[in-house]
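Marked as duplicate of an earlier ticket. Keeping the data here for the record.
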Amino acid sequence: MFPELNNLLNVSPEKPEQGTFTLLCDNKTDGSFLVHHFLSFYLRANCKVCFVALLQSFSHYNIVGQKLGVNLIAARDRGQLVFLEGLKSTVEILFGSEEQSNTLKFIRESDTDLKSLYEMVHKALTPSGDGDAASRKFPVLLVDDLSVLLSLGVRAVAVLDFIQACRATVCCQLKGNVLALVHDSDKTEDEENALLMNALGHQSSLILRAEGLLTGFCKDVHGQLKILWRGLQQPKSEQTRNLIYQYKIQDKNVTFFAKGLSPAVL
C-alpha cells in the first residue's frame, strides 16, 4: 500500500469512501501499480473483495501483495478475497471440455454477453449472513483489466452493461465500491476502446490516469499521475483544476512529487 497516494486522495483505511466507481487508466505506461495499491488498501481495510484478474496470474498478484504487506492466499482462505484467475479460466475454456462450467464461457459463444461474469460477482459480494462476513466493511469489486475483454471479442456495449449492473448492485444496493483498469491506446481507429473509455469516464466518481513521459524514459521519473474528481467526490479546494503528480516506482513503494521537483532534479 502506498501511503503517499492515500494522502493525495485524502483517504484512510479506517474510513474509506463508499458507493463510488473509480476508473483507473494508463497511457504509454504500466498502471498496474494502481491495481496493486487498491487491492492491498481494501484488504487492509477489512473489506470483502472480488478481484476479476484478467491480465496476470494469482501468484503474480500474491508476490506483489506480500511486498505491500498483504497475503492474498490467507485472504482467500478466510473468505475475504474472491479471486477469478482469467488466464487459467481462458485456457480451460479454449482447451478443456465443452461441457465444463466456466465463468468466462462467453469466449466460445457467439453471444458475448457477460451475464455469467456478473452472476459470479453478485454471488461473491452478496452478504452470506455468517458472523465473519458481518464483521467486514463494505464489498469491493476490482477488475484488471477491462481492455482484455475487448481483446476477447466482447463489444464495448456489453462491457458497459456489465459495469452498469455491477455499479447498481455493488455501489447502490450494497454501498460498496467498484474499480476498473482500462488501457487508453490513443488510437482513433480503435473505436471500441474509445467508446469504453469515454463512457466510463462520464460514470466515474474518480479518475486516476497514469501516463508516460512525453520526453521518453527517465530512470528517476517513471511517469505522471493525473487525478480528476467528479461529482460529490470532488474536494471543495479542487473544484477548478485537476491534480498532476510525477512518480517513481520503487520495490515496495511509489514516490509522488510535483512536476519538476524530482529529488534527482533538486
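See parent ticket for discussion. The two ends are 26 Å apart (CA to CA).
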